[in-house]
Write a structure and sequence with these properties.
The structure holds 5 protein chains of 5 kinds. By secondary structure, chain B is mainly alpha-helical. Chain B contains 20 helices and 2 strands. Chain B has a domain of 217 residues. In chain B, helix 14 crosses helix 20. The longest helix of chain B has 32 residues. In chain C, helix 3 runs antiparallel to helix 4 and helix 7 crosses helix 8. Chain C is globular, with a radius of gyration of 21 Å. The longest helix of chain E has 26 residues. Chain E folds into 2 domains: 135 residues, Up-down Bundle (Four Helix Bundle (Hemerythrin (Met), subunit A)), CATH 1.20.120.1200; 31 residues. Chain E is globular and about 55 Å long. The N and C termini of chain E lie far apart (64 Å). The chains are: A mainly alpha, B mainly alpha, C mainly alpha, D mainly alpha, E mainly alpha. Chains in contact: A-B, A-C, A-D, A-E, B-C, C-D, C-E, D-E. At the D-E interface, helix 1, helix 2 and helix 3 of D face helix 1, helix 2, helix 3, helix 4 and helix 5 of E.
Chain lengths: 614, 488, 469, 103, 168
């Protein structure tokens, strides 16, 4: 029974996918209901699963996927607190996004396909969450990747969209190679890829660290960590609900989930955790700085996502496992909220450039309020969701003695608050900047605003589950071994302070224009560096892509000129020999006779010489 | 022997080809239908073989043996085991697909289908033959129809491609013939029976020589770098059905022969040279991927990707671990399905656009969403997307190879990025984006085209989602192979 | 000599051929022009009766006429092959206007066949030499029989080189006679047994090799072949492609392994060299040819190379393989020539390009030609493959792996020129759509050969069990 | 038997060589036939000499020589007929004008 | 016959044979060449007599001088002018031919001088004619018959190609 309902969580969206692939085109707009129904069923069952887990259930359902001799690869459904939590988050966000999309995608000609992809994406993500072994994890991982590819490139007529999709796929794929190698190393060294068996095994720390770091490369790609974060901002070319689903709650969280899931393995090679922490910190800081300069509403959110994912990694890396997981949980809600809010805005003004917006507060009340809730959560203002989790992470860095990381975390929090409210002030307050939109701007339909409200509710309250008021119930549930740190007034105060400072600064500059607009010159080299995203894209273009193409062209050239040249050359040489020897046949009978005589003499001399006859 | 089903399956197409000659040339549709019927019946026979196959048993099944040239120790000996059975079935399936795919051929229809049926005889026989000479005959038999298929219905440069294909593979295989003869005379068994040779355990001073001739013969067919240059020409010039069968079946003959013959009859030599083979394999992998990346022609890209993918198979074979070998066998089938489908799609697209230049294409997913979608599907399968069959094979190969060849395997893994790169690039440039201005209205997939691709899609997905039943066929046979290796 | 002790049965096939040769010749003199048409059929009947005679001698091992004439399996098989191919030629040209009067043409052919048969059975140098001349003299005449410049040139080249080769052969024979004091093969063998290899013997062997090498068109004694194949009347070229060579190989098989057995290592090596030279020269030069008959001429040279592998191997398997290959080669080469005959009869040129689109103009001719050419390449499932298989097997068995490799690589190269014809027939569209009609006997002959080529490729045991390979 | 056998052989070899030169160099087809006759005679000298020195009692060498003579006669007959045909076609028997077939 | 006479005869014959052979090959007048050929045949017949081969010598005189030469003369007269024929063909192989032929002859001579054959001292039969006749009818019956067929075939062959077509 258990197996049935757990597997239904995954199977129902898959079924929806299959139905929609076949009938989606014919059904058009009605496709949405199939998909939404499916995801709602999944959500319901996920909640039931969560309740069961809360009731003490901790189980694994397995079946063999492939077996060779006595090596078995199993697939299965691992249900524990972490997966149950993720299931609910994924299903919930997915459900809300899909509902939101009814409005957002209204009238699109590939409506059915859109929902098919969303269904399958959700299914892949749920499968990933359920994974009890690394093969399934990898399978689902790539499945998530490919559907995100299809969704980012959903408007593939747009060159930029298909480019972005390609980039997303390729960049994450590069990271996945590390994951793949880690898989191989695990198999070779342990003979199994089942997590529980692996976690129970003893590994040499160096090996464990190697494997963990390789595995973390996968997470770097998927969770858009430095230096493979470059795909995520571009991925904003996809429809906004997709951004909300993929780049907020689910796919990007997969990396974090992987690290969280594999935490026992990482712990066997502690160096790897340091590595995770450092990468996370760099990512958090760097993305936050870029977000300061971004002017596209979705790009800002994208960089903030990267930054927040960096926080999560930072948390996991410094040992604050529960905090990392907690931030994953809260972030899912408020970032989905922010994206959907942004979607609502874009839907209304048909632009993504924040400096073309303004004054939307008056026209889009629900969107504005919920967006501000999301912003507060992101900025880390208590009691909104983000505060509790982020604070825990910074606290973790502090208590574990990672001083540098701690301070960078604080600084990043400041930036976060600033760019978030820069966005809010510019978009929702002040005068409408682009008047030609003005008249048409109105609040989005209910299918869009209701999800916003629901997410707003969660953004407001989700953090409380892990707050000291409930004795860090969330952390205790997720990670019984990793209880949250006690509240540290210094850290908490500092983080509240920086959040408020950031908001104030944003208000001063964008809310009231008290600060001059040219506080930082646009020609300042640092500004340029940041505004150009640290030239990472250029770096990859010149260091990776151009050389790769050059090598490819060279090898092709080599193939055609040298290898095929040799093949054709041999044929040509044979032909040349042929036409050369042909000349012996002069047509003159006396030449022939002479050749015969010469042949005779040569045969005789040769045999005298070489057959030893004298 | 009471029920010679394998023989019937092998030679039914020959009968079909003969009967085809009695249908008047002008009745093209009747010819097509008849050919389809023959291949379908053959496929039906194949399925009955599949259902009659006893799982979990090592060794050959459905063995049929008859005296043929007793003076030279040559017998007619066919049978299937878990390694040849999947390829046998793949051949039957792809033949049906190829018949459907070539429906649009308008000129010299009867000849086309006759040749295709003859081709099927050769391919099926190669996989079923258990006698060296029989094997060699079937092996070579494939060349003639393929030569004509490329040469008559091929593209612009068909003559060059057809001759190159024939000559190159012939040159490789005649050397193999010398190897076979040397084996025969040095084994002292006086038989060409593969099973007996496998069981006897072969040792000779000339084993290295024999190995090299076999290697050359098979490496050309696979094809392994640097013997691959016939492939892009042949694949690109061949008509769609020809490409499907070339990529889908003919290349497998090489890898199959490596497992069946080199590994099992010359185990010592194979183990000795495995690193060399692996090195060639890895060069093929990387090299094929790079050359595919540099292609502007969609079909050429798929062709070069075959070099790369077959490199993975060879790597798996060279590794000689149960997991890798299982993966290699499975990957042969997968590659047959996937690349077959890619060629099918490229062919169908070409029929509409009359160009395969990636730069000239674009937006096909809008113009012809079903075909475009199926192309994307096949491309994704080809790049090893989990959930589709390519992944399972590659995963097993890589898992199994690492133990034997660490650095090589790492390279193989890293090349997966390149693989994605060229396939995604093709997807993006040809399928996505806005349709080009020169494009008129194209008809999307017809029912016939859809049906031809459907079994491939289903199998690709089925193997990818649940490989266990497929591995059930392969694993015992692989174990037998490895026992021979361990025994040597 | 007691006449009653002569086993007349032993030369019965020869007597039959001789009888029919005379009958046909007389027919030319006494029959009316319309009745002369039937002389071809009579010839065919004669050949078939002679075949029966050969078959009745199966299993007989005898040496008659004071050691001049011996019957054994090899001789019988070669005679049978000769008679079969000649019968097919005769069948093929039954409705073709031949270049001389029918009686003259067929009787000369029968005389040549007779000489070849005697060559196959000769076990004495004198007998061999006379038989050889009997083989070639009518052949010279047949080549010249069209009497135009081309025909005469071919004949003159054939003749001049032929007699020079004969003289060289004769000179070699005199030396051999001088060394051993005998002209009888067995006696020569006995005399040479245990003697060290003297230079004179070597010179003699090589000169004999030249003479016989000329007959089988081995490089560098092959120069006549392309010119003659191209220049002689097509029916004659068809005959030359198969028949007379049998005599050369029969002589080689009888003289070297029997009479010169003690020098086997020497001549085996020399034959290996000739084999390699012939294969390469024939195949490479053929690549540059555009005339189908000339191309087949060079291909014949190359095939002589393959055949000589059997002598380079110098053991029973080698000889038998050589015989088998000779049979399958003759069939395919003859078939190809008959196709050329069929097309030239309809005014189609002899250039490779003239075969363009033959598949459309005559599907069966094209298929037959393709099968013959594939068989010549040695691609299964045609007889040529089985022939090469056994030939190279014999080489490998005798540790001549390198020779086998050269051989198989040459087979691969040979595809390069055979394919040009195939390409024209199937891949190029015809310039004229006219259907190529073929006279019924010629068609029958071609179809019979095609059937044989396929059958022997699929079930060689049928023939192998006859020659006890 | 005072003359050593090898002397005959040497004479024969020289004659053979002269004949060969004639065959290889003379332009006139008829002269080439002459030269061939010289070579045949050289061979016959060998045969008769060997017959006398090696097997005097059995005269197989002489028999051979007789056959060779007959063969020479028939060859000449056929050869001349062919030369005649050539002459009729090109009004010449110059061997270097006979060059249709080549390469 | 004493030894010295034998020597003289042998050398005489040899010189004449070689000189006449050279003459055959070098004469520009075909008729002269034919005459020299006839003379050579006679000289060779002399060798045969010296070698106790009476019948062969006789046959040499009859067949060659009486037969072959006559046929050849017919040929000359039928085909071309007899005098002043061009000597060496246009092929540029003169030097090489001399080299090759000289080498070949030298090779043969060196082989002949080195060879050590067991020469029989037995005397030759006196009356070879009857012996030959008997052998033709017994041991050599088959070659003899085949020879006659060969002559027949050659004759027919020579006729059929030499005759002018009257029909056209």
């Amino acid at each position: 029974m258990l197996a049935y309902y757990l597997s239904l969580i995954v199977l129902v969206p898959i079924l929806s996918f299959i139905i929609l692939v076949i009938f989606g085109k014919r059904w058009g707009d009605k496709s949405a209901y199939v998909s939404i129904a499916a995801v709602l069923i999944s959500l319901g069952l996920s909640i039931k699963a969560l309740i069961d887990v809360l009731g003490g259930l901790n189980t694994k359902v397995l079946f063999t996927w492939a077996s060779i001799g006595n090596f078995h690869i199993t697939f299965g459904l691992l249900l524990d607190s972490l997966s149950a939590m993720m299931l609910v988050v994924v299903a919930l966000v997915s459900a809300l996004v899909q509902i939101f999309s009814i409005g957002y995608m209204h009238g699109d000609k590939r409506y059915g396909w859109f929902y098919a992809c969303l269904s399958m994406f959700t299914a892949s993500m749920l499968l990933l969450v359920f994974a009890p072994n690394y093969v399934q994890m990898y399978v689902a991982w790539e499945g998530v990747g490919v559907f995100s590819y299809l969704l980012i490139g959903f408007w593939f007529e747009k060159r930029s969209a298909s480019q972005a999709a390609k980039k997303a796929f390729m960049v994450t794929r590069v990271g996945d190679l590390g994951f793949a190698i880690a898989l191989i190393l695990l198999y070779i060294n342990a003979g199994t890829l089942d997590m529980d068996k692996l976690f129970a095994m003893h590994f040499v720390p160096a090996l464990a660290a190697t494997i963990s770091i390789l595995m973390f490369f996968g997470a770097i790609g998927k969770s858009a960590q430095f230096p493979l974060h470059v795909w995520l901002p571009d991925a904003m070319e996809g429809p906004t609900p997709v951004s909300a689903l993929i780049h907020a709650a689910t796919m990007v969280a997969a990396g974090v989930y992987l690290v969280a899931r594999s935490y026992p393995l990482f712990e066997k090679g502690p160096v790897s955790l340091e590595f995770v922490a450092i990468i996370g910190t760099i990512t958090a800081f760097m993305a936050a700085t870029i977000a300061l300069t971004a002017t596209d509403i979705k790009k800002v959110l994208a960089y903030s996502t990267i930054s927040q994912l960096g926080y999560m990694m930072m948390g996991l890396g410094v040992g604050a496992f529960a905090a990392g997981a907690f931030h994953l949980f809260t972030h899912a809600f408020f970032k989905a909220l922010l994206f959907l809010g942004a979607g609502s805005v874009i839907h209304a003004v048909h632009s993504q450039e924040i400096f073309e917006m303004g004054g939307l507060w008056k026209k889009m009340k629900i969107t504005s309020i919920t967006f501000i809730i999301g912003g507060l959560a992101l900025a880390g203002v208590p009691p909104f969701a983000g505060f509790w989790s982020k604070d825990e992470i910074i606290l973790g860095a502090y208590t574990s003695g990672h001083t540098a990381i701690f301070w960078i975390g604080i600084l990043t929090a400041l930036f976060t608050a600033f760019y978030t409210f820069r966005l809010i002030f510019v978009v929702f307050f002040g005068q409408p900047r682009a008047d030609h939109h003005g008249g048409h701007v109105h609040e989005s339909p209910a299918v869009m605003s209701i999800p916003l409200l629901i997410l707003g509710f969660f953004a407001l309250t989700a953090g409380l589950l892990g707050s000291p008021f409930v004795h860090n119930a969330f952390q205790g549930f997720i990670a019984p071994g990793h209880e949250a740190e006690a509240v540290n007034p210094f850290v908490m105060g500092l983080s509240i302070a920086v959040a408020l400072i950031g908001i104030t600064a944003a208000w001063l500059k964008y809310g009231t224009q008290v600060l001059p607009s040219n506080v930082i010159s646009k020609n300042n080299p640092i500004y340029k560096l940041v505004a150009n995203k640290y030239y990472m894209d250029e770096f990859y273009y010149y260091v990776l892509i151009i050389p790769t193409h050059a090598v490819a062209r060279f090898i092709l050239e080599f193939d055609q000129k040298v290898i095929d040249g040799i093949v054709n050359g041999v044929a040509k040489i044979i032909a040349v020999f042929g036409s050369g020897m042909r000349r012996l046949q002069t047509g003159y009978v006396q030449n022939y006779a002479l050749f015969m005589l010469v042949g005779l003499i040569i045969l005789i001399i040769w045999s005298f010489r070489f057959l030893g006859i004298h | 022997m009471s029920n010679p089903i394998i023989t019937t399956t092998i030679f039914l197409p020959l009968l079909g080809a003969l009967l085809l000659q009695f249908i008047p040339r002008s009745k093209a549709n009747l010819i097509r239908t008849f050919a389809l019927l023959v291949t379908l019946i053959d496929l039906g026979l194949g399925i009955s073989v599949l259902t009659g196959y006893k799982l979990g048993l090592a060794g050959m099944q459905f063995v049929e043996k008859a005296s043929w040239i007793p003076r030279a120790g040559i017998s007619y000996h066919v049978g299937l085991d878990g390694i040849s059975l999947p390829l046998f079935e793949l051949t039957l399936l792809l033949t049906v697909v190829a018949v459907l795919a070539s429906w649009s051929i308008k000129n010299r229809v009867r000849e086309h289908y006759s040749l295709m049926l003859l081709l099927a005889v050769g391919m099926l026989g190669t996989f079923a033959a258990l006698d060296f000479v029989l094997f060699y005959i079937f092996w070579e038999l494939v060349l003639i129809p393929m030569y004509f298929i490329i040469g008559i219905w091929g593209g612009e440069n068909r003559n060059y491609a057809a001759v190159k294909f024939f000559l190159y593979t012939l040159a490789g295989s005649v050397l193999m013939l010398v190897g076979i003869l040397t084996l025969y005379f040095t084994s002292g068994l006086g038989t060409f029976d593969m099973v007996k040779l496998m069981q006897a355990g072969y040792h000779s001073q000339l084993a290295t020589f024999i190995f090299i001739t076999f290697f050359l013969g098979f490496a050309v067919k696979v094809p392994m770098w640097p013997f691959h240059t016939w492939l892009p020409d042949a694949h690109v010039q061949a008509p769609t059905a020809g490409s499907v069968l070339l990529a889908g079946v003919l290349l497998k003959m090489g890898t199959y022969a490596f497992i069946r013959i080199v590994v099992q009859i010359l185990p010592t030599e194979f183990t000795r040279f495995a690193p060399v083979i692996a090195a060639f394999a890895i060069i093929s992998i990387v090299y094929g991927a790079y050359t595919a990346l540099a292609q502007q022609d969609l079909k050429k890209m798929v062709a070069y990707s075959s070099v790369s993918h077959m490199g993975y198979v060879m790597l798996g074979i060279a590794a000689l671990t149960p997991v890798a070998l299982n993966g290699a066998v499975l990957q042969m089938v997968n590659h047959g399905l996937i690349t077959g489908m890619l060629f099918l799609m490229v062919g169908y697209i070409y029929e509409r656009t009359h160009t395969r230049d990636i730069a000239k294409l674009g937006g096909l997913s809008i113009k012809i969403p079903i075909l475009g979608g199926m192309f994307v599907f096949a491309a994704l399968a080809s790049l090893g997307l989990p959930g589709l069959s390519g992944f399972v094979g590659e995963l097993l190969i890589l898992l199994g190879s690492y133990g034997a060849f660490k650095i090589f395997t790492i390279f193989a893994v890293l090349t997966l990025a390149l693989t994605s790169f060229y396939l995604i690039r093709a997807n993006q440039n040809a399928m996505f984006g806005m349709p080009q201005s020169w494009m008129g209205d194209f008809k999307d997939a017809s029912g016939r085209e859809l049906i031809s691709a459907l079994p491939l899609i289903i199998l690709i997905a089925a193997i990818g989602v649940y490989p266990k039943p497929f591995l059930h066929y392969i694993d015992p046979a692989v174990n037998t192979v490895l026992q021979i290796i361990r025994g040597s | 000599m007691d006449w009653s002790q002569v086993n007349w049965m032993a030369i019965m096939p020869e007597l039959i051929i001789l009888g029919f040769a005379v009958i046909v010749l007389l027919g030319e003199l006494f029959l009316s022009p319309s009745a002369r048409r039937s002389l071809g059929a009579i010839t065919l009947v004669g050949i078939i009766i002679a075949m029966v005679g050969v078959v009745r001698l199966w299993g007989v091992e005898a040496t008659e006429f004071s050691g001049m004439f011996s019957v054994d399996l090899t001789a019988n098989v070669l005679k049978l092959i000769l008679l079969i191919t000649t019968a097919l030629v005769v069948l093929g040209v039954l409705r073709v206007k031949v270049t001389l009067g029918e009686g003259e043409f067929f009787s000369l052919m029968l005389f040549s066949v007779l000489g070849t048969m005697f060559m196959a059975s000769a076990s004495d140098l004198i007998m061999l030499f006379i038989a050889l001349e009997l083989t070639v003299l009518p052949a010279y005449v047949l080549v010249a029989s069209k009497k135009n410049a081309r025909s005469a040139e071919a004949a003159l080249k054939y003749f001049l080189l032929g007699i020079v080769a004969s003289v060289v052969l004769l000179y070699g024979m005199t030396l051999l006679f001088g060394m051993t004091g005998s002209t009888n093969f067995t006696a020569i063998a006995n005399s040479l047994h245990g003697r060290s290899l003297e230079p004179m013997l070597l010179v003699s062997i090589i000169m004999i090799m030249v003479g016989l090498g000329f007959k089988v068109a081995a490089v560098p004694f092959h120069f006549w072949a392309p010119d003659v194949y191209e220049g002689s009347p097509v029916p004659v070229a068809s005959y030359l492609s198969a028949g007379p060579k049998a005599g050369g190989f029969a002589a080689l098989i009888h003289l070297f392994p029997v009479a010169l057995a003690s020098a086997a290592p020497v001549w085996a090596t020399l034959f290996a060299i000739l084999a390699v030279l012939s294969m390469f020269t024939g195949n490479l030069v053929a690549l540059a040819q555009t005339n189908v008959r000339r191309l087949l001429g060079y291909s014949a040279v190359a095939h002589t190379g393959y055949l000589l592998v059997g002598l380079a191997v110098a053991d029973k398997l080698g000889y038998l393989s050589m015989i088998f290959y000779f049979f399958v080669y003759s069939l395919a080469a003859l078939g190809a020539f008959l196709v050329v005959l069929a097309t030239t009869e309809r005014g189609i040129g002899e250039n490779v390009t003239d075969f363009a689109g033959l598949h459309k103009r005559s599907p069966m001719l094209a298929i037959a030609m393709a099968i013959f050419l594939f068989s010549l390449v040695g691609v299964p499932p045609f007889a040529g493959f089985m022939g090469k298989f056994f030939l190279f097997a014999s080489a490998v068995k005798s540790n001549l792996i390198w020779l086998a490799i050269v051989g198989v690589l040459n087979s691969a190269i040979s595809f390069g020129y055979y394919v040009t014809v195939i390409r024209q027939m199937y891949l190029v569209s015809p310039e004229s759509d006219g259907v190529v009609t073929v006279s019924k006997p010629l068609y029958l002959s071609i179809m019979l050969i095609m059937a044989a080529v396929v059958f022997l490729g699929v079930y060689p045991t049928a023939f192998l069990s006859i020659i006890k390979l | 038997m005072v003359i050593p056998l090898s002397w005959y052989l040497i004479v024969s070899a020289i004659l053979f060589g002269i004949g060969l030169i004639g065959v290889l160099l003379r332009q006139n087809a008829v002269t080439i036939l002459f030269s061939v006759e010289i070579m045949l005679n050289a061979a016959n000298i060998n045969l008769v000499a060997f017959s006398r020195y090696i097997t005097p009692s059995a005269i197989s060498g002489q028999m051979f020589a007789l056959f060779v003579m007959a063969i020479a006669a028939s060859e000449v007959a056929v050869g001349l007929a062919i030369v005649l045909t050539i002459y009729r076609n090109i009004q010449s028997v110059d061997i270097d004008k006979i060059n249709i077939f080549k390469w | 016959m004493n030894d010295i006479a034998t020597y003289i005869i042998f050398f005489g014959l040899s010189t004449m044979a070689i000189l006449s052979a050279i003459a055959i090959v070098t004469r520009r007048n075909l008729f002269h060449a034919a005459m020299f050929l006839g003379f050579l045949m006679l000289v060779v017949a002399g060798f045969y007599f010296l070698l106790d081969a009476d019948l062969v010598g006789m046959m040499q005189v009859f067949v060659y001088v009486g037969g072959v030469i006559v046929v050849l003369l017919f040929g000359i007269m039928l085909t071309s002018q007899m005098t002043n024929v061009r000597m060496v063909s246009a092929m540029k192989q003169k030097g090489f031919t001399f080299l090759a032929v000289t080498g070949f002859v030298a090779l043969l001579i060196s082989v002949f001088t080195k060879v050590n054959l067991s020469v029989s001292t037995a005397t030759a039969p006196k009356d070879t004619t009857s012996l030959v006749g008997k052998l033709f009818m017994t041991n050599y019956i088959l070659p003899f018959e085949v020879m006659s067929v060969l002559l027949l075939a050659a004759l027919i062959g020579a006729i059929v190609i030499a005759r002018q077509e009257v029909k056209q």
